């Protein structure tokens, strides 16, 4: 699956998120798997939950992170693709 900035993502009902000291774990109850996030991944997850629309997530990332836009977009879409493949995010 390939994500695009025009898509809206949502957290499936069977996925839980827990944060502790800037890092987080995402748990899929239906797949009995977990996925660890570092501080940057945690922030992207939070932005996805808050905004849904990947363009809005990207815009927020541009304001928060000091990195070239092309790199931010590529990192965002790669991260979202990984979560989509693992069933931790879904396209709305």
How would you describe this structure to a colleague?
The strands form two sheets. A three-stranded antiparallel sheet has the order 2-3-4. The relative contact order is 0.26. It has helices spanning 39-51, 54-64, 69-85, and strands at 9-10, 15-20, 23-28, 33-37, 90-91. It is built from three helices and five strands, in the order ββββαααβ. It has one domain (9-89): Outer Surface Protein A, domain 3 (Alpha-Beta Complex), CATH 3.90.930. The chain has 92 residues and is α+β, with helices and mostly antiparallel strands.
Structure summary:
45% of the residues lie in helices and 23% in strands. It has 92 residues and is of the alpha+beta class. The protein has a single domain (9-89), classed as Outer Surface Protein A, domain 3 (Alpha-Beta Complex), CATH 3.90.930.
């Amino acid at each position: 699956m390939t994500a695009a900035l025009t898509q809206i993502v949502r957290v499936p009902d069977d996925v839980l998120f827990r944060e502790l000291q800037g890092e987080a774990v995402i748990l899929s109850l239906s797949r009995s798997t977990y996925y660890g996030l570092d501080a940057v991944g945690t922030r992207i997850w939070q932005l996805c939950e808050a905004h849904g629309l990947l363009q809005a997530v990207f815009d927020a990332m541009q304001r928060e992170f000091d990195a070239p836009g092309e790199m931010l977009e590529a990192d965002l879409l790669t991260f979202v693709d990984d979560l989509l493949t693992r069933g931790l995010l879904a396209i709305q």
